Amino acid sequence: MHGNPERTALLAGTATFVALMAAGAWAAIPVGPVPVTLQTFFLLLAAPVMKRRAVVPAAVYLLLGALNLPVFHAGLSGIGVLLGPSGGFLIGFVPAAAVAGLAYETRSRGIRIAGLAGATAVIYACGVAWLLLSAASPSRPPSSSGSSPSSPAMS
After folding, report:
1. b vs e for 125-154, b when ≥16 Cβ sit within 10 Å of the residue's Cβ?
2. How many other β-carbons are positioned within 10 Å of the β-carbon of residue 43?
3. pTM reported for the whole predicted model
4. What domains can you pick out in the chain, each with its CATH number?
5. What confidence tens digit (pLDDT) does each residue in 57-91 have?
6. How far apart are CA 120 and CA 113, in angstroms?
């Protein structure tokens, strides 16, 4: 019985890193609306191992969570988590994995380190942008966003 070693490595790496990210979601430090977890560590660890294919476990992780498997922080799941305060950080996993994975395609240590830093910056940029969009700002109170009982959206 002969298989495709590349496909086997992709499948094994994907399963391993999805499991590690799900386990890392339980190791959390509660800080504001979005906890600090080990998910990012395991996502960035996938880059040296899987190179550009590190995008696959990131996407599978989000897909499993969106399909209501309890892989997000504290066993949460579903589209609601992706639309909540931590959604931007989670969505940022896919482009961050691409940045770090592509950086590890090179032999340059400097590019690899820059890739990890860039990937972290991508995660934070996506997360902060989502927080700014989803949270009510002082210039736009919650009552003007369609959440008050008298707004037409609630009728």
Report:
1. bbbeebbeeeeeeeeeeeeeeeeeeeeeee
2. 26
3. 0.84
4. 5-135 (1.10.1760.20)
5. 999 999 999 999 999 999 999 999 999 999 999 99
6. 11
